[in-house]
Design brief:
single chain; 214 residues; mainly alpha; 10 helices; 3 strands; globular
Length: 214
């Protein structure tokens, strides 16, 4: 059974950057719906015992065209994406990456600010609903991308990339506070993302990719 991440902070903890009503609605309504729908569909398809990253990595080869495949894609992506999103937010998290991740960001993008600029452009420029991503491959090489709807790099690359940071640019993530000013919301996101958690994701993602490759 798939479970929502348990938030280690209150809904109002990220004020003034993320307002409490948006956080509560986002987590308790949208994320909860994706999770519940995924559980129903995955159980019916007999895949509810598989890890979500495995389901998404194999979706194009094993799921596409089958009954309820689109529902599993949409709700599976929504479940995974939101677990990632809420997990790397924090009231007093690290505002800058350090260690191995910082070194790789600087080598790949030139600086952390340059990475933020690229991610901000991808998020602001995503037409309609979607996400902006920082991902790694199995060798630790970093890349940025955007995805429509609830797709993500795991599904799109068939398990060759794994996201370690995701910016939700669906309107439900920001519209109550920021209205149509998506760029302002993205700027606020970088005030509450915990780069220590992103660094943990970086290590874990490479290990997961090694398992997916087998």
């Amino acid at each position: 059974m798939f479970e929502q991440i348990k938030l280690p902070y209150a809904f109002d903890a990220l004020e003034p950057h993320f307002d409490a009503l948006t956080m509560e609605t986002h987590y308790s309504k949208h994320h909860a719906a994706y999770t519940n729908n995924l559980n129903t569909l995955a159980q019916a398809a007999g895949i509810d015992s598989k890890p979500i990253d495995v389901i998404l990595a194999h979706w194009k080869r094993k799921g596409e065209g089958k009954a309820d495949a689109q529902g599993i894609r949409n709700n599976g992506g929504g479940y995974f994406n939101h677990n990632l999103f809420f997990a790397h937010l924090a009231k007093d998290g690290a505002h800058e990456p350090s260690g191995e991740l910082a070194d790789k960001i600087n080598a790949t993008f030139g600086s952390v600010d340059a990475l933020k600029e690229q991610l901000s452009k991808l998020g602001a420029g995503q037409f309609g609903s979607g996400w902006a991503w920082l991902s790694t491959d199995i060798d630790g090489n970093l890349s940025v991308s955007s995805s429509p709807n609830q797709d993500n790099p795991i599904l799109e690359s068939e398990g060759k990339l794994f996201p370690i940071l995701g910016i939700d640019v669906w309107e439900h993530a920001y519209y109550l506070k920021y209205k149509n000013l998506r760029a302002d919301y993205i700027k606020a996101f970088f005030e509450v993302v915990d780069w220590n958690k992103v660094a943990e994701n970086y290590v874990a993602a490479k290990e997961t990719l090694a398992k997916l490759a087998k």
